[in-house]
Amino acid sequence: MRSKREANKSKLKLVKIVSILALAILVILIGWKKFPDYFTKEVKNKTNLVINSNNVTAKMKDEVYIDDKGVIYLSKDDVKNYFDKYINYDEKAGRLITTWDTKIATILKDKKDIDINGSKVNIAEGLLERNGKIYIPFSELAQNVYNAEINYLKSTNRVVIDSLDRELKKADCSRNVKVKYKAKGLSKTLAKVKKGEKIVVISEEGKWSKIRTQNGIVGYIKSGNIANITYVRQNLEKPKIIEGKVNLFWDYYSEYAKAPNRIGQTFEGINVVSPSFFSIAKGSNGQIIDNCKEDGKNYVKWAHDNNYKVWAMMSNNSYLTTTEGILNSYEKRNRLIENIVNLAQEYNIDGINLDFENMNGKDKDMYSRLVIELAPRLKDIGKVLTVDVTAPDGSETWSLCFDRDVLADVSDYIIFMAYDQYGTGGNKVGTTAGYNWVETNINKFINQEAVEKEKIILGIPLYTRLWKEENGKITSKVVNMNKVDQTLPSDIEKKWDDELKQNYVEYQEKDAIYKMWIEDKKSIKEKIGLAKKYDLAGIAFWEKDREPEDFWGFVKEELND
Fold first, then answer.
1. What is the three-class DSSP state of 23?
2. How far apart are the first and last CA of the chain?
3. Which in 145, 383, 471, 544 has the greatest CB count within 10 A?
4. What's the CA dihedral at 369, 373, 378, 379 to 10 degrees?
C-alpha cells in the first residue's frame, strides 16, 4: 500500500503537469490573438490543392488522390464546390454529367472514355469509387472540359490548377526574398525565393504583392522585389450578346402554317425576333417538328438583312405527359438537345427561345437539367439561349415547375411572361397584366428567386380579355390591342385605374355584364417604365400582329426616353 507521502508527491506532480499544459494553452491563445499571422491555415501531411490564386486544401470536403499512373482525382463534391455546381451523378445508371462554359461531358462508370459535346474522347482512367464517394479523373478532363491546366509539384506535394480563361502574369524576383503568410513583415515565412526566380503575380495590395512560387506556395512579398512583369494571357472577355437593351417580339404561327412573309417590312427599335420554328410532337422521344423549312429560311434572311437577331422559339406545345417522358430520360433529353443544336446550325439562327409550359411541379429539377445540358452546347456554337418562365405565384403546372434562379444562372436570359394575371383557368374576372402585379413579381424575381436583373426580359401582352358574366357563369374571349375599339360599344366610357395603370370599362347588354381591363399604348408605356425602373435586360411582346398602328415607333421612343 502506497504511503501518504508518495500519494502527495504524485498529486503534486499531476498538478505541475496540468499547470504546464494550461500555461502552454494560454501562451498559444495569447499568441493566436496577438500574433495571428504566425498561425497559418496550411494543411500538412496531405496533398495540397491550389486553384489559381488560392490554396483551398483546408476548405475541401475530401482529399486529392493521385494514382500510381499519375492521374489526379478530385471528389465529385469538390468538383461541385470549385468548378461545376450543377454536376450530376446518376447512381443507378453509373453516369456522371458535368458542364463547364461551352462543354458538357458524360462519363459512365467502368468506362475509359468520355462523351464531350457529342464526341467520344479516350481517357487513361475513368470514374473511381473511393471511401464511398465518386472521384473524377480531373487531370483527364482539365483541358478538354474545364479549360484548365493542371500540374503536380512533387517537391511541395501540391496540385496546381490554372484556369486558361483567366489572366496570368509572371515576373522575376529582383533579389532573394522571403514569402510571407500575410502582407506584413511580422508574418510567418512560408518559403524563400532566390533572385531571378520566376513567380506568378496574383495581385497588388499596397506595398505588397500576392504571388505564387514555382513550387505552388501562395503568399506575399514586397512589390519592390518584383521585376519584368509579363502577361502570359489576359482575362477572356465575353462578347456582348446584343447592343443595348433587348426589344423582342414573338412571331407565332402554328405547326400547320408557314412562316410569315415579312419581306419589305421593318419595325423601329426591334432588335430580336422570335418565330415559332420548332416544337415537340405529341408522344415525341426527343424528335422535333421542324416548321422552319424554306419559308423560315426566307424569314431568317429578312431578319438578318434588317439587323434583327433570330431567337427561334422551341415549344413543348404544353404536352404534359410527353414533356415528362423527355425530361426524365437522359437519352431523350440528349436526343432533343442534339436536334436543337443541329437545327440551329442548319438554319443559321442566332439563338433558341425555350418555351416549355404546363409541366409537372415534380419535374422542376429535370427541366433545369435540360437547360443545364443544353446551354453549353448552344454556347459552343455561338447561339443564345433564352428561357420563358411565369410569375412565381404557386400554381403547380404553371409556376412551381420552374427553378427561376437556376434557369437564369444557366441561360443567357429568362423572359418573364407577365400574363395572364387572370385567365381562363380561374373563376374570377380581372386584368391580364396589372401594373402592381407585374411590379410585385419583378421584385419576387430579384429578391425572392435571386435572379439578377440583367438576366430578366419583361414579357408584355398585346392583348386583353373581354369578360362576360351571365346567369352566374363567367366566360371570356381574347381581344387583341388593335381590335379593342372595334369590340367595345362606341359610346363606352373608359376609366383610368391608377393602381393597375389601365383603362377599365364595364357595360351591360341584355342580361350580361361585360368587363375589360384595356391594354393600350398608355398601359404599355407604364410596363415599359417598369423595365426601365428596374434596369431589366429588355422587353418582349406577345405577339406580333396584335399591335395597333405606329406601335413600334412608340415603343422605340419610350425605350429611349
1. helix
2. 101
3. 145
4. 100
pTM over 0.85: yes
The answer to whether 105 and 89 have CB atoms below 8 angstroms apart is no
CATH of 167-233 given 1.10.150.20, 3.40.50.720, 2.30.40.10, 2.30.30.40: 2.30.30.40
Answer whether 218's CB lies under 8 Å from 202's CB: yes
Residue 377 grid coordinates = 452546347
Strand order in the sheet with 502-509: 473-480, 463-470, 512-518, 502-509, 495-497
Nearest CA to 259 out of 319, 307, 310 is that of: 310
Q: Does domain 48-153 have CATH number 3.40.50.620?
A: no
List the chain pLDDT tens, one digit each, 561 residues: 456 566 566 666 666 676 676 665 554 444 445 555 555 567 889 999 999 999 999 999 999 999 999 999 999 999 999 999 999 999 999 999 999 999 999 999 999 999 999 999 999 999 999 999 999 999 999 999 999 999 999 999 999 999 999 999 999 999 999 999 999 888 999 999 999 999 999 999 889 999 999 999 999 999 999 999 999 999 888 888 999 999 999 999 999 999 999 999 999 999 999 999 999 999 999 999 999 999 999 999 999 999 999 999 999 999 999 999 999 999 999 999 999 999 999 999 999 999 999 999 999 999 999 999 999 999 999 999 999 999 998 799 999 999 999 999 999 999 999 999 998 877 899 999 999 999 999 999 999 999 999 999 999 999 999 999 999 999 999 999 999 999 999 999 999 999 999 999 999 999 999 999 999 999 999 999 999 999 999 999 999 999 999 999 999 999 988
Name the 3-class secondary structure at 38: helix
The full set of domain ranges for the chain reads 48-153, 167-233, 246-462+519-560
3-state SS, residue 518:
strand
Alpha helix (H) residue ranges in 348-429:
364-380, 404-410
In CATH, the number for domain 246-462+519-560 is 3.20.20.80
Alpha carbon distance 360, 364 (integer Å):
7
Q: What is the DSSP string of 149-179?
A: EEEEETTTTEEEEEETTS-EEEEEESS-EEE
